[in-house]
């Protein structure tokens, strides 16, 4: 036991004396949370829109105010000639233009029909589509508000409710994904690298030629990284609650238990990698390719799984992160209990057991 | 340390017995050791002398249970290297050829770590390492990676000794260490031997061979000779001469071409030569022959063969 403790202490010395490890350990999660939360969103924010208002009447003003109020657009009112507008588009200064013709309100109230022109920069088709959709929605919204006063029969109004994320807060989806990714990187990469480092430095030879049992070598490598991962988890959760405004709706203990399970499966994989490789670079590469990439690709937190071809969807089932992602989403974001995630938990448990058995079996008590 | 049942092993305690060990790498394509057998007695300072790639490290790794031999049997301290590997790991000290301690831990931390790992404490066997440790103690808070070569070796030796092993394996402990530190190191080994520890040391330096009680000369996985250094040098088959001249390198081919020469090779600033038939007055004839060729300032004197001469002879 004393041997075990001194070994764990030694591991902590390694971690805290190596700036690179520390950076990966604590810099990476913070960076990823902030990156995914703020920078890498696929939402549109503050798209530059120019409004050319020839009408200057109540209807056009009301629509403009409505659009202005949203955070999606930043409105610039200007009277522009078509030539100027094209120039602005070409230079990329604006994403969209709305043009209200003269007599807009009069057409609307008397002829019951008015048109407004929306021009979007479709060189980026997705953004253009989104902008056009939003603008059309705002105009439709306004149309309905005036229709309401005109006693028109039966307006079918689709009422959309955004479940779990009414503000369509994009960082919500990312948090479980980032948790999976960060735990994966720390556990797999750092454990495999730290064991392979012992091999590279030759210290493994001395460790093996000692009464310390090889299995304890593995355990004492795993324990510090388990502890550090859980500390990291706390950091990520604090960041997501207080910086990203993503609440933890479910049971915190259940969340931690599930995370611990996932960490153990990742640690086992790290151990497995270390028994197949002999250099730190190889260990790092295999950990990255073997776990990080699938975590990014196959959990569905960046690319929806449903859109993938069937073979890839099947492959995604053997990635532990996929199941972990489902669990965290359910527990953390939807506030569901163990009853709903027991199946996924069992799968993860099975995977962990298999990985751990293989890695313990594969650990060599000799050099070859 | 666990109380091993050593009673049955009393006769073999501290000894290393190697019988017909064969080791290959790469599925038998690279031969590292072929049919190596020798015995190291209890309390002996035994040297394994050979060039790089001779198979020294492979043999050490087999004896320290890190590698499995393809064929053959070996026991260390009475324990079989395959069956009783756990017991062996508890009672031997091993210092690999490469500096293998934690570079980011200080001297003191390294020592404490290995002491605890071997289920002992620094204090318990302090008298054993005292002489060595005192020398590096002033730097005990320095990280091992920042130490000089000699200090690293001393620290590694301390760590290998901390649990008072019955057998100590030192794989090229003096490679890459300066001459003064090497000398000190061998003096330390002699003192350790007095404590009754069996020491098996490998080295590529022939001059260190005479510091061992017995040596084995190893080349390409073959044991060439096993004996005391004195007996090995005594066994040199002919008289050996050292030849010197102002232009030794130019003279070499002429000496080699001389029909009576049995061996000739440069050795530092000399040529070491021996003749096929020691009965005749060879040196005079050779000197005459050389002066005819235009080499006037040549001197030849008889010398005692060194281990290196024997090694070259046996190769």
Topology:
The complex is a heterodimer of chains A (368) and B (315).
Chain A: H1 2-17, H2 19-39, E1 47-53, H3 58-69, E2 73-77, H4 82-90, E3 96-100, H5 104-110, E4 117-120, H6 125-149, H7 171-201, H8 203-208, H9 214-242, H10 252-276, H11 280-298, H12 310-316, H13 320-333, H14 338-362
Parallel strand pairs in A: 1-2, 1-3
Antiparallel strand pairs in A: 3-4
Helix pairs in contact in A: 1-9, 2-7, 2-9, 3-6, 7-9, 7-10, 7-11, 7-13, 9-10, 10-13, 10-14, 13-14
Chain B: E1 16-25, E2 30-40, E3 45-49, H1 56-63, E4 71-76, E5 79-80, H2 85-91, E6 92-95, H3 107-117, H4 126-136, H5 149-161, E7 167-171, H6 179-194, E8 198-203, E9 214-219, E10 222-227, H7 229-234, E11 240-244, H8 248-257, E12 261-267, E13 270-275, H9 282-292, E14 299-303, H10 307-314
Parallel strand pairs in B: 3-8, 3-9, 6-7, 7-8
Antiparallel strand pairs in B: 1-2, 1-4, 4-5, 9-10, 11-13, 11-14, 12-13
Helix pairs in contact in B: 3-5, 4-5
What does this entry look like structurally?
- Chain A folds into two domains: 2-40 and 168-362, no CATH class; 47-149, abc type-2 transporter like fold.
- The two termini of chain A are 28 Å apart.
- In chain A, 67% of the residues lie in helices and 6% in strands.
- A four-stranded mixed sheet of chain A has the order 2-1-3-4, with helices on one face.
- Chain A has 368 residues and is mostly helical.
- In chain A, helix 2 (19-39) runs parallel beside helix 9 and helix 7 crosses helix 13.
- Chain B has 315 residues and is α/β, with parallel strands linked by helices.
- Chain B folds into two domains: 7-233, P-loop containing nucleotide triphosphate hydrolases (Rossmann fold, 3-Layer(aba) Sandwich), CATH 3.40.50; 236-314, 2-Layer Sandwich (Alpha-Beta Plaits).
- Helix content of chain B is 32%, strand content 27%.
- In chain B, the strands form three sheets. Chain B has a six-stranded mixed sheet with strand order 6-7-8-3-9-10, sandwiched between helices.
- In chain B, a hairpin with a 2-residue loop joins strand 4 (71-76) and strand 5 (79-80).
- The longest helix of chain B is centred in the middle third of the chain and has 16 residues, at 179-194.
- The model of chain B is unreliable at 1-10 (pLDDT under 50).
- The A-B interface holds A 2-3, 6-7, 10, 13-14, 17-18, 201-203, 205-212, 365-368 and B 1-2, 61, 64-68, 85-86, 89-90, 92, 94, 96, 98-105, 109, 112-114, 116-119, 159-160.
């Amino acid at each position: 036991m004393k041997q075990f403790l001194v070994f764990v202490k030694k591991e902590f010395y390694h971690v805290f004396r190596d700036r690179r490890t520390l950076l990966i350990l604590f810099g990476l999660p913070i960076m990823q949370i902030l990156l995914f939360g703020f920078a890498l969103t696929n939402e549109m924010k503050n798209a530059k829109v120019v409004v050319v208002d020839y009408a200057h009447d109540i209807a056009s003003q009301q629509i403009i105010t409505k659009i202005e109020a949203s955070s999606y657009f930043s409105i610039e009112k200007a009277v522009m000639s078509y030539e100027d507008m094209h120039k602005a588009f070409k230079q990329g200064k604006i994403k969209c233009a709305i043009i209200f013709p003269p007599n807009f309100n009069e057409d609307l109230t008397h002829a019951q029909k008015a048109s407004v022109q929306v021009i979007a920069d479709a060189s980026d088709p997705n953004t253009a589509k989104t902008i056009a959709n939003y603008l059309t929605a705002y105009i439709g919204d306004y149309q309905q508000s005036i229709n309401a006063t005109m006693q028109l029969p039966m307006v079918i109004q689709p009422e959309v409710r955004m479940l779990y994320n009414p503000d369509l807060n994009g960082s919500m989806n990312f948090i479980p994904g980032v948790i999976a990714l960060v735990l994966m990187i720390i556990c797999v990469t750092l454990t495999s690298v730290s064991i392979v480092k012992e091999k590279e430095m030759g210290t493994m030879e001395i460790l093996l030629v000692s009464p310390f049992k090889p299995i304890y070598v593995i355990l004492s490598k795993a324990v510090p990284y388990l502890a550090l991962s859980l500390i990291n988890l706390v950091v990520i959760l604090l960041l997501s609650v207080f910086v990203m405004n993503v609440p933890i709706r479910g049971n915190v203990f259940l969340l931690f238990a599930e995370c611990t399970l996932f960490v153990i499966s990742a640690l086992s994989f790290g151990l497995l990698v270390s028994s197949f490789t002999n250099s730190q670079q190889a260990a790092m590469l295999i950990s990255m390719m073997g776990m990080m990439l699938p975590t990014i690709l196959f959990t569905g937190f960046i690319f929806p799984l449903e859109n993938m071809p069937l073979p890839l969807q099947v492959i995604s089932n053997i990635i532990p992160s996929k199941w972990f992602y489902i669990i965290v989403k359910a527990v953390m974001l939807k506030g569901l209990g163990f009853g709903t995630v027991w199946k996924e938990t069992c799968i993860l448990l099975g995977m962990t057991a298999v990985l751990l058995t293989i890695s313990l079996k594969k650990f060599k008590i000799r050099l070859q | 340390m666990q109380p091993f049942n050593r009673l049955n092993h009393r006769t073999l305690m501290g000894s290393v017995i190697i019988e017909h060990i064969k080791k290959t790498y790469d599925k038998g394509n690279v031969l590292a050791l072929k049919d190596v057998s020798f015995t190291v007695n209890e309390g002996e300072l035994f040297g394994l002398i050979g060039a790089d790639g001779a198979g020294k490290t492979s043999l050490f790794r087999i004896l320290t249970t890190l590698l499995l031999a393809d064929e053959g049997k070996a026991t260390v301290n009475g324990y079989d290297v395959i069956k009783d590997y756990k017991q062996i790991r508890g009672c031997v000290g091993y210092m690999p050829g490469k500096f293998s301690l934690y570079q980011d831990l200080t001297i003191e931390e390294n020592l404490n770590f290995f002491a605890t790992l071997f289920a002992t404490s620094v204090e318990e066997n302090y008298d054993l390492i005292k002489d060595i440790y005192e020398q590096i103690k002033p730097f005990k808070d320095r990280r091992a990676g920042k130490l000089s070569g000699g200090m690293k070796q001393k620290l590694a030796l301390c760590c290998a000794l901390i649990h008072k092993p019955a057998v100590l394996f030192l794989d090229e402990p003096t490679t890459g260490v300066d001459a003064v530190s090497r000398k000190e190191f061998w003096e330390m080994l002699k003192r350790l031997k007095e404590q009754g520890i069996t020491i098996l040391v490998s080295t590529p330096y022939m001059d260190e061979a005479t510091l061992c009680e017995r040596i084995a000369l190893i080349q390409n996985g073959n044991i060439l000779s096993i004996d005391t250094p004195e007996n090995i040098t005594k066994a040199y088959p002919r008289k050996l001469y050292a030849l010197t001249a102002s232009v030794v390198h130019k003279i070499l081919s002429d000496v080699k071409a001389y029909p009576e020469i049995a061996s000739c090779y440069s050795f530092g600033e000399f040529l070491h030569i021996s003749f096929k038939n020691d009965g005749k007055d060879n040196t005079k004839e050779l000197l005459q022959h050389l002066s005819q060729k235009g080499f006037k300032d040549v001197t030849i004197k008889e010398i005692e063969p060194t281990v290196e001469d024997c090694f070259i002879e046996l190769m």
